[in-house]
Amino acid sequence: EEIRVYEFAEKINKPVSEVIKELFSLGVMFTKNDFLDKDSIEILAETFGINVTTVNDQEAFDYVKAYDDEGEASDQILVERAPVITIMGHVDHGKTSLLDYIRSAKVAAGEAGGITQHVGAYMVEKNGRNITFIDTPGHEAFTEMRSRGAKVTDIVIVVVAADDGVKPQTKEAIEHAKAANVPIIIAVNKMDKEAANPDLVKAQLAELGITPVDWGGEHEFVPVSAKTGMGIEDLLETILLQADLLELKADPSREVKATVIESSLEKGRGPVATVVVEDGTMRVGDIVVAGVAFGKVKALLDDLGRSVKEALPGEPVVVLGLSEVPGAGDTLISVKTDKIAREYAKKKAEYLRQKELSKTTKVSLDDLSAMIAEGALKTLPVIIKADVQGSLEAIKGSLEKIRNSETKVNIVSAGIGGITESDVAIASASSDCIILGFHVRPTGVVKEKAKSAGVEIKTYNIIYDLIDDVTNIVTGLMAPVI
Ligand code: GDP
Fold first, then answer.
1. pLDDT digits (tens, 9 = 90+) for 34-51
2. pLDDT tens, 406-459?
3. pTM for this prediction
4. Which of 53, 129, 250, 293 could cross-link with 322 by S-S, CB 3.0 to 4.6 Å?
């Protein structure tokens, strides 16, 4: 995690468009969500005449590394790592059942600790290879982590009940996965049921651009039953095939880098965090930092609660010995000394405090038009919500036509109904995305969420006004509103 352009602008209290303009005049193109490199930060600091002590993750990480890597040869030894899977889908379509079935089917009866523990992630074996499942079904965890920059998931499984078909949260799940650019496998669940109609599921999803392989598309549809266990082995095999295509590699010989999946304060054990190792090997005795937490790893536990000495890339592991409870999505790294660990954690705390203090709108319409005018933004991502299908289609049609030679409108998602928290989550996870409402409004709660996520919501009662605004943004002509 490095510093993004808009975060930098927030910090120095300047409009983001000014920062982008400055960078542009230096001959470098940045959009507000791009990460700044060190040189640019220094040049900007000079231009704006301020003293910047960058305290973001990557900076601190580099700083830590500078100490850490001294005298060490760094020949990379890349080996295959376990794929990390997240299961999403509509409520009651069987996410939990599927996760439970896979876990219990794959754990030999009588193994220590039983299989009742929930630590946020678990690993199973198939054909001598490992697969890690994130054990917190639902979209929130996925988008929350992603909006924090954590990319833990390699493949998303979208569960669709064969007797119920595509539902609103199915669509959401697909949108989340698409926005994150993560491959999707469809598990057509509840195949044991009389009313199961997998062809209807296929047809409905094909309409959303998720076309089955056997219909000439690119997506694997695996019929399963979380009740009888039918198709589960096929599903695991499909995951491995997809993982092969992704060529997931990591270097177990280096220091650990992991992502916190879940954390809690437990009586008698203190702060406990479940992490998934991204790179390197995690070992007992490692000195680590994770967000504002640091410490020497006292013990590592696997997903069955058994004590282990180490965890390899792609593997989930429970970490004991941290000073505090880190946040989900925090990066954990190992460092050489306790001093460095403390320093890092302190910097992170300082960074978070600053960020909290200088929370400003993530994106505003005049920022966007300035960015487009400067050629810094190539597409304008929008989410459209409307009251009726007819209006939605009309708006979609008109927006698709709006483009100038450089810029076009990218419809991230479009749907009927009010503006929801999920829309805000999707918008905040995509760069510079705005939400356009037609005859629909966000509730107070959603407004609050949007505000704190820095997402702009614009609502309209006249289609022409909506089109006009977007056209103005895209042509970069909108007069700045002060
Ligand atoms: P979630 O909300 O997506 O996590 O769904 P659950 O896993 O809680 O499942 C919802 C309901 O569907 C529960 O009553 C499950 O027992 C049932 N269910 C889940 N999978 C299957 C299946 O493959 N076949 C049948 N018959 N029922 C299932």
1. 777 766 777 777 777 766
2. 677 888 888 888 888 888 888 887 777 899 999 888 877 888 888 888 889 999
3. 0.65
4. 293
Among all chains, which residue has been given the structure tokens 């997402």?
455
Written as one string, the DSSP assignment of 284-304 is: TT-EEEETTEEEE--EEE-TT
Ligand 1 pocket, residue 225 CB under 6 Å:
yes
472 touches ligand 1 (CB under 6 Å)? no
176 labelled as ligand-binding? no
Q: Are 460 and 466 in contact (CB under 8 A)?
A: yes
pLDDT at 105: 80
231 lines ligand 1 (CB under 6 A): no
Which tokens hold the place of 31? 């959009």
CA 92–ligand 1 middle distance (angstroms) = 6
Choose the residue to mutate in 92, 98, 102, 157 for probing ligand 1, maximizing ligand atoms within 8 Å of C-beta.
Answer: 92
Tell me the mean pLDDT in the region 200-204. 97
Cβ of 96 below 6 Å from ligand 1: yes
Residue of the nearest CA to atom 6 in ligand 1? 94
Measured from the CA of 190, which atom of ligand 1 is nearest? 23
User: How far is Cα 147 from Cα 137, in angstroms, rounded to an integer?
Assistant: 17
Give Cβ neighbours of residue 405 (< 8 Å, ≥ 6 apart): none
Q: Minimal CA–CA distance to 368: which of 458, 444, 463?
A: 458
Nearest CA to ligand 1 atom 19: 94
Is there a contact between 123 and 193 (Cβ–Cβ < 8 Å)? no
As a whole number, the mean pLDDT across the chain is 82
Ligand 1, atom nearest to 90 Cα = 3
Residue 379, H or E segment: strand 379-386
Residue 97 near ligand 1, beta carbon < 6 Å:
yes
Query: What is the value of ipTM here, to two decimals?
Result: 0.99
Strand 299-301 vs strand 316-320: parallel, antiparallel, or unpaired?
A: antiparallel
Phi, psi of 273, rounded to the nearest 5 degrees: -130, 135
Query: 189: Cβ below 6 Å to ligand 1?
Result: yes
Would you list the DSSP string of 46-111?
Answer: HHTT------SHHHHHHHHHHHHTTT-------EE---EEEEEESTTSSHHHHHHHHHHHHSPTT-
pLDDT tops 90 at residue 29: no
Distance CA 130, CA 127 (A): 8
141 Cβ contact partners less than 8 Å away, ≥ 6 residues apart: 86, 134, 328
474, 476, 477, 482: CA torsion to nearest 10: 110
Q: What would the pLDDT profile of 206-226 be if each residue is shown by its tens digit?
A: 999 999 999 999 999 999 999
